[in-house]
């Protein structure tokens, strides 16, 4: 598993990444800006990466098949900025493993050369504040500022507060149609305050009547027990949806080991969920 999470040695050597190489030495790449060089050094300084190859391969495969898709990152953690930075490097063709150099294949999806723009900026980030089991608010333009604060400003970011679950659901679809990617920080405090009850976890609203859009939520902590962190509900009546009705169709429990060792893990998972939705 460790070798699958570590950048290959020949690439670490070129970019001076990891404890075996001089991290203070500047990257010798004339095609990279100073900011990009510093970002690569900071993100991969230990020779590892945040996003695994099977995830990148999913995007590459869907793009190659000319599928229409969107990416939404959701986390309780504090590493979203690093994830966004690595994801944007990938989309911009500057990720060390996908930049077309050192025997790697280049991938671009930033709006150039006729590609879709999957990059994430301040207009497509947000944080979710749950008010109850059936309601929430969403702050667009920030990954961490409190929604309860009366005045929100800073860093020349345009903030927008979305008031309830229905509005948040509609907003998400509108935003995704505009940008194709999004990143959310979920309300860990609310989940913790409610004894980590799954009904207070990451709210995932589904409209089963819409057949033109197929939402799939990937997480390794999905289950039909108290350990689950996902709260799946019907958008119309806010009622919880039975686990058996949505598993391997709208939600997919990831096996971290298999996701690491199988480069096509997520692409196969998407295919399985699509087939199950057609059959049912």
Summary of the model, kept short:
The protein has 280 residues and is α/β, with parallel strands linked by helices. It contains 10 helices and 9 strands. It has a domain at 194-280.
Notes on the structure:
It contains 10 helices and 9 strands. It is an alpha/beta fold and 280 residues long. The chain has a domain at 194-280. Strands 1-5-2-3-4 form a 5-stranded mixed beta sheet, covered by helices on one side. Residues 146-157 have low confidence and may be disordered. It is globular, with a radius of gyration of 20 Å.
The arrangement of helices and strands along the chain is HHHHEHEEEHEHEEEHEHH
Chain oligomer state: single chain
Our Rg estimate from Cα atoms comes to 20 Å
Distance between the termini: 36 Å
Fraction of residues in β-strands: 5-15%
Question: Count of helices?
Answer: 10
Report the mean per-residue pLDDT as an integer: 84
What is the helical fraction, as a range of percent? 25-40%
Low-pLDDT windows of residues: 146-157
> How many strands in all?
9
Strand order of the largest sheet: 1-5-2-3-4
Give me the secondary-structure topology.
Elements: H1 2-5, H2 9-15, H3 34-43, H4 53-64, E1 71-75, H5 80-91, E2 125-130, E3 136-140, E4 160-162, H6 165-179, E5 181-185, H7 188-193, E6 202-206, E7 217-219, E8 230-234, H8 243-246, E9 251-253, H9 256-261, H10 265-279
Parallel strand pairs: 1-5, 2-5, 6-8, 7-9
Antiparallel strand pairs: 2-3, 3-4
Helix pairs in contact: 3-5
